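Form 7-S
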Amino acid sequence: MTKASVSAPSRRQLLAGAAAAGALLPFGARVAAASDQRLVAAPARLAIVGGNHPETEVWAYNGTVPGPLLRVRRGTKLKVTLENHAADTTSLHWHGIRLPNAMDGVPGLTQKPVGRGESFVYEFEAKDSGTFWYHPHWKSYEQVERGLYGALIVEEDHPPVVDRDVLWVLDDWRLTSEAKIAGDFGSIFDMSHAGRLGNTVTVNGKIAEEFAVRAGERIRLRLLNVANARIFGLRFGALAPQLIATDGHAIAPHALEGNRVVLGPGMRADLILDCGGKPGERVTITDDFYPRQAYRLLDVVYGAEPLRAKPPETPFALGAPALPEPKLAEAERHDIVFGGGMMGRLSEAEFQGRKRSMREIFMQHRMAWAVNGRVLAEHDHAPMLTLKQGRSYILAMENDTAWHHPIHLHGHTFQVIARDGAKTARTEWRDTVLMNPRERVDIAFVADNPGDWMFHCHVLEHQAGGMMAVMRVA
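Output:
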């Protein structure tokens, strides 16, 4: 999964000298419940691998990876001051949050970049409940990989009754045998293929071995994928979770297809996990999205003392999200084609104002992807589409490439309404949708949030390599 020049131990090798991670708990003391917060981006050293391995040099918010978990009630007005003491310019993007355009955190588009030693104040209302997150939008392929990310949970007015509300932030790291982050950020190989896949998977910033539960316990398990490129396909074995939210927004609860949840980079899922096993039992959760590289993520381990005879039978459906419903019969339709990459069929594209061969763009400018035949450099923000505020739209998207792409739209939440021409079976609200190679996906939304909004692949190397565009809502 890594370039030959990187000494890349397997997860098993890294674990050989590591202490067991034990039970994974919510962030505890790192939860920031107040609405006025300060996030300091700065270098840090953390025991990601553990055991006898050296600490890893990272960039972190307030010295932790993930950064502080911000947890507020719906309707809360947040004020977050970003202070930049990292080695580069940065910003904060609030992924999945519907907020004013000026607070979206895209340097050169919605704000000036935050230089070293500078600060920026983000203020917005948490209008929607759900599981969201924050990360830089400046050299994201490097800064997120170095550890700059954290979660934001906006609580429902009437959350379901559970015994525990647990967050797993899933990431993978490309580490050397000395537990250092490999320095090949933005490599042309990663950019033109699947992205930067790592060799060390962590849950909440550490290698995980076990997650302790009690028989009869009901857990709300929030999953968040912050990896640069890795897609997680978590299979839950004898457990049978119910999916209750996608990208933070309520859906009708239902069992997972194949008892497996798939999360591309940037995507989230909320599950209800009823622990119906017996004391002393173990259930292995595996990640088999890449079948030839399947591995054990961790074991769910039942403690000796049950909590109750069986999990409760109380309802756990979330309240319907307060999102603008697109009017499909009146919606204006736009075709979006994603092209390029290795084994791609795109021969030429527009770049810097003129048509060029993809070979020239790739060899001379290190760009590999296009949206509607246009390759956009990371800080080129000319709008691809201008949408009328308040109108419903359908984006008929085609992935004309050999690779997966999680497509993310800033400032809005959309419905996934069709895949390969077949209507989706359930209402599915998202801000990021995973497209399979050669797949067609239709999404619908109301363009109700004015401003210039990023629209891009959340494989961060793909974004840097040209797979992004800007939607103007006016």
